[in-house]
Amino acid sequence: MLKHAPAGELSAATGFAFNPIDRMSERRDEPGLFDRFFDDPNSRFVVIGRDRPVLKIADGQLDPLHTRAEALAIGQARETVLLGKDDERAIFALMIDDSAIAVEETVSPSGLIDTRRQIIPGRPDLMVRDLRSVTTEGLLPIVQIGFLGQAKSVLFWHARHRFCSNCGAPSNVVGAGWRRECPKCGAQHFPRTDPVVIMLAVDGDDCLLGRSGRFGKGMYSALAGFLEPGETIEDAVRREILEESGIRIGSVAYVASQPWPFPSSLMIGCVAQALNRDIVVDQTELEDCRWFTRQDVDLMLKHSHPDGFEAPNPIAIAHHLLRAWYDGETPSFR
């Protein structure tokens, strides 16, 4: 079935969340299914090389979908995964060998390297571009961004799990690409998703935002951290906020989630009740952390804050958490 999120569901508004593909998870072990779709001339292939999608350029437009012949001509196939069906057409993800992609360096007059970009040699009709840029620059329709994220995540896992973690033997791809099995010890391995809590601590009309040195100029975002084994979402929120900012947390409420294919995380968005105001910044994790007023957030979302503060890009769940809080659409702890 195609994915149709209920109206107003915040998760559906985040980047990489809208994915209309029917994953057919219950049919992945059906005999002959993979081969039948693989041989179908109507099937289309997403090509990933060096962890980046390879896009076709035709009449000034970009297209992530290749025919099987087009995909196999780009480079040697390493792994192929059946993502699912888009209407009646199957969509595959195909990972090509790194050797098919070259790094092109542009040298400035001073002799210093200015830029590095990845290319398919001899193929000016193809573009290799990182998925984050493709998304933030709006180079493809949102309906295609979702299955590109799906493809990137599952192929990243395959690239790093070729051997059985139980006995070390090379493993085989089965289940239409959604499972690896060890022929030596029989162990089964499944694609992993790493849960990450991302949370907005609030105190009345103020919210807590932090800044990493990796962020763009002036950008502040919600705090975030990986969920640990044996830990609830709520306790992970409390632990991460306390560790990074010194703020103690009471109640925690779930708001929305987002698949984040860098490399393969699930962002679990929450709001949290702050119990104190004094900030103690963990300098190993954050460059700065401070309280922002509702008016500050309004100006940040409008790119008009007088101090140059900026909200995260709309592809990130942090942006939607901030907007939902500003609009009064998140749980209140008053």
Architecture overview:
This protein has 334 residues and is α+β, with helices and mostly antiparallel strands. It has 2 domains: 151 residues, no CATH class; 133 residues, Nucleoside Triphosphate Pyrophosphohydrolase (Alpha-Beta Complex). The protein contains 7 helices and 18 strands. A hairpin with a 2-residue loop joins strand 1 and strand 2. The longest helix has 18 residues. It is globular. The model has no long low-confidence stretch (mean pLDDT 94).
Count all strands and give the number. Answer: 18
The overall pLDDT average reads: 94
Low-confidence stretches: none
Q: What structural class is derived from the secondary structure elements?
A: alpha+beta
Report the oligomer: single chain
Alpha carbon gap, first and last residue: 41 Å
Please write the string of helix (H) and strand (E) elements: HEEEEHEEEEEHHEEEEEEHEEEHH
The backbone outline, from C-alpha atoms, is: globular
Strand content: 25-35%
